[in-house]
Amino acid sequence: MNQTTEQFQATAAFAAMMDNADSLKAFKQSFFFPQHNGNDVIYFCGNSLGLQPKSVPAAIETELKSWRELAVGGYFGGENPWLYYQDYVSLSMAKLIGAKNNEVTAMNTLTVNLHLLMQSFYKPTKQRFKIIMEAGAFPSDQYAVETLVKINGFSPDEAIIEISPREGEKLIHEEDILSAIKTNANELAMVMFGGMNYYTGQLFNMKRITEAAHEVGAVAGFDLAHVAGNVPLSLHDWDVDFAAWCTYKYLNAGPGATGGLFVHEKHANDIETPRLGGWWGNDEKTRFKMEKGFIPKPLASGWNISTAQVFNMVSLKASLALFDDAGIDNLRKKSITLTNYLEFLLKQLSNISFEIITPENSDERGAQLSLFFKHDGRRIHDEMHNNGIIVDYREPGVIRVAPAPMYCSFADVYRFYEILKNFK
Ligand SMILES: *Cc1c(COP(=O)(O)O)cnc(C)c1O
């Protein structure tokens, strides 16, 4: 399936042939699809809320049964003793982001985890207090950083440096990020970047950003909301300090599912690394002694605070089993071809005018293409929905299309193209 763009064909038969050759095609059957006129919809919104794996209802019933039959005994008994529930998902998530098992845990939700991690890693002084982030970051991240600097007594205007696309452009130049890090070398405390911008789909080079931050004595953390389960990473080897992600987008764990976080072992192993503590992060040997003095686990789970949110992790555990089966490298390989095919098809269109604002290079994007329509964006979005294709629309005229490789096919992508081709 190593098709290059030149070998692609804009025909339904070609799409069917690609699906036939796809070793991951069976995973589509592992998901429930919303219905449209009695058929499964084509779902390109996995970057917003992933589909429900068919294994989820039974997985939830398993924990309902433990609760029903064992009550408090469910913490230590039953199929999945709840005491360790956060640990059941960390190995699978560690594989997705290239971390060691002890560097990953699950707790809370994304923005909360960003706040908690920034409490550990943002240690401003009068000289060194600035934070570099991307302009146009997801609003929740903007609010988190804005309130963080305020609570530390700084004004957002002086403490936050936003890296913008250049005049008239939509993507951020990597050299502009790196040069801002250098320019602010003596005042920079932290780089807190999205791994991928939610709007443009631009994937940033986390390795190089981390290196640059470390060179000037700052820490580097990333929001992986649009990356986890989409693009494989090597956070440990890249020496990233911390990261957090939600699990309801590409990871298909359902609305409000428990989020994931990464703390590099050089910080996680050190129980002196500052943090806001709670009993679930305490060493298990002393947790139930209820004694004075917090002794964190020398692991990322030393950041846990509260009792494991079992029912918010059940579907995550079920969904991650599919990622273990498929393998993130296989998913990525399919994803690159699938997204390239979508791009190839879009470039055949001459009846509508639009711009693909996502980077062209596969290394700088994941499954998502963001299409900017100067006219008719809203109408095209509605036309898709009328034809059973779920995509999302953001003003002013951007349709984000995310063919998640776990449950989207080449035929799905072809159908999207066909509707655009016939659009009047
Ligand atoms: C989806 C998303 C969020 C959402 O955060 P929650 O705390 O889970 O609501 C935050 N940041 C980014 C970059 C996102 O894409």
Question: Would you spell out the secondary-structure blueprint of this structure?
Answer:
Layout: H1 12-20, E1 31-32, E2 35-36, E3 39-40, E4 42-43, E5 52-53, H2 56-70, H3 85-88, H4 90-97, E6 104-107, H5 110-121, E7 130-134, H6 139-151, H7 156-159, E8 160-163, H8 174-183, E9 188-194, H9 206-215, E10 219-223, H10 235-238, E11 242-245, E12 259-263, H11 265-268, H12 284-287, H13 310-326, H14 328-347, E13 354-356, E14 369-373, H15 377-386, E15 389-390, E16 392-394, E17 398-401, H16 410-421
Parallel strand pairs: 4-15, 7-8, 7-9, 9-10, 10-11
Antiparallel strand pairs: 1-5, 2-3, 6-12, 11-12, 13-14, 14-17, 16-17
Helix pairs in contact: 1-16, 2-13, 4-13, 5-6, 8-9, 14-16
The protein binds pyridoxal-5'-phosphate (PLP).
How would you describe this protein?
The chain is an alpha/beta fold and 424 residues long. The protein has two domains: 5-30 and 328-420, Aspartate Aminotransferase, domain 1 (Alpha-Beta Complex), CATH 3.90.1150; 61-323, Aspartate Aminotransferase, domain 2. Helices cover 37% and strands 14% of the residues. The strands form five sheets. A seven-stranded mixed β-sheet has the order 6-12-11-10-9-7-8, sandwiched between helices. β2 (35-36) and β3 form a beta hairpin. α8 runs parallel beside α9 (206-215) and α14 runs parallel beside α16 (410-421). The longest helix is centred in the last third of the chain and has 20 residues, at 328-347. The relative contact order is 0.18. The mean pLDDT is 96. Bound molecules: pyridoxal-5'-phosphate. The site of pyridoxal-5'-phosphate has 12 residues, from α5 and α6.
